[in-house]
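Objective 1b of the project was to move from sequence-level analysis to a structural picture of ligand recognition. The entry below was assembled by the postdoctoral researcher (A.K.) and checked by the PI before modelling. It contains the amino acid sequence of the target and the SMILES of the bound compound, coenzyme A.
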Amino acid sequence: MAVTIREANLADAPVICEYNRRLAQESEGKTLEPAIVAKGVAAVLSDAAKGRYFVAEEHQEVVGQIMIAREWSDWRNAWMWWIESVYVRQDSRRQGVFRALYEHVYRTARADPTVVGLRLYVEKNNQAAQQTYLSLGMSPMNFHLFHKFPL
Ligand SMILES: CC(C)(COP(=O)(O)OP(=O)(O)OC[C@H]1O[C@@H](n2cnc3c(N)ncnc32)[C@H](O)[C@@H]1OP(=O)(O)O)[C@@H](O)C(=O)NCCC(=O)NCCS
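Corresponding predicted holo structure:
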């Protein structure tokens, strides 16, 4: 059965929270606090200025997700879209689910003249995700990320 992609709504909050928790555990060995994630996900789903989730469905079940956060580029007078919260359920991997999510986001960005590019960050040891992004035509950037966290 073909995967279908749609924008998420508030009814998807529980599965998005669950996938965010699995993502953090699997990719960074981090245990997220469920109550905080629930509020964070609900905040995005209630306010498009914070971000947008798209979900992949198969047999009426959500099997994958992607989030877009916008960053204004003063150099380009346009938006850069950051890809975040990427997760595909384990039993649905290597079946093109993320490819479908990415292509949907790519087409949506291309159709909007105020958007100039897609970016993301990925954990250094996450080879599977890096191979995925390369295979979809993304290229590594020449930056290191720095942070001051927590404040
Ligand atoms: C990374 C992830 C999103 C890929 O999702 P997916 O639906 O399995 O990816 P797709 O089936 O669309 O794969 C597209 C292409 O990416 C590449 N790819 C995907 N998974 C790969 C892997 N484990 N190793 C090497 N290449 C891989 C392949 O070229 C693949 O095409 P092919 O299957 O025709 O060879 C998924 O493995 C995942 O959820 N991982 C855990 C969470 C995570 O790491 N998120 C990213 C955080 S930055």
